[in-house]
Amino acid sequence: MSTTSRKVIISCAVTGSAHVPSMSDYLPITPEDIRSQAIEAAEAGAAILHLHARDPRDGRPTPSPDVYREFVPAIAQATDAVINITTGGSTRMTLDERLAYARIARPEMCSLNMGSMNFSLHPVAAKIESWRFDWEKDYVEGMEDMIFRNTFRDIRNILAEFQEYGTRFEFECYDVGHLYNLAHFVDQGLIKGPFFIQSVFGILGGLGPDPENVALMRSTADRLFGRENYHFSILGAGRHQMSLVTMGAILGGNVRVGLEDSVYLEKGVKAKTNAEQVRKIRRILEELSFEIATPADARQMLGLKGAGKTAL
């Protein structure tokens, strides 16, 4: 990424699959909630909307294309934000389930985790005194014995298939080794720049939220790829969200917020909407004299195919 560019892409991850409804009354779980919160986040300044689906009956993550169809087309019609569909789904889903809607929609962007890993929030279960739905407690506690699978073959097959659709990726890197996995596929010719690295901090099983790790991921990516060949972005989990993404922007990167990554707006205060987090980071960035990227800017920066070339 050119060091002369000060436009910062704000991504918003609207609901995800890790948090459960008992963690926040404001977590969007119905198609209507996801749709309205995504549109509001785009209006607040999010250029990219990262989307998962949930079963509207009880909020559990679902790969169902029918559920996605209840909110994704409406979001695409109401806003020009880049639609980014997860290929991560949840650790409970098969690879084919995780890819089901993305294969149909052929969006401008998909997320792609760059390796298999332990991924867990299970210590949080001890802090929850009551559960809204029967499935939640076992789901959160069960993360202790789950592995998020993305083998080299899985990644290679996804890259090869989605290359045919013209879909580009948000490459989610939870550790330094994931950057080297990414470099492997660049060397194989399956990934061409400019590519979008989403570096993730604060997930148990991945790299910790130490500020030094942000600089480590940035310098490692520079060494592997050359700064001019990629766009860097920061995801800080939980209470580390705002401080780490602000640091990332200062280091020349982009930012991701949203209720998938943190259910809080500030210490002890739950975010009522995704847009609250978007507005907060936008204010911080603008006070630091950064310009906020529009969806058109994001499409140009990331070499996206355009909303008109999808099947949303």
From TrEMBL:
InterPro entries referenced in this protein's UniProt entry, alphabetically: Aldolase_TIM, BKACE
Transmembrane annotation, as ranges: none
Single annotated GO MF: 3-keto-5-aminohexanoate cleavage activity
Signal peptide, first to last residue: none
Cofactor dependence: Zn(2+)
Keywords for the protein's UniProt record, in alphabetical order: Metal-binding, Transferase, Zinc
Gene3D superfamilies assigned: Aldolase class I
PANTHER family: 3-KETO-5-AMINOHEXANOATE CLEAVAGE ENZYME, 3-KETO-5-AMINOHEXANOATE CLEAVAGE ENZYME-RELATED
Annotated protein name in UniProt: PF05853 family protein
Species annotation: Caballeronia telluris
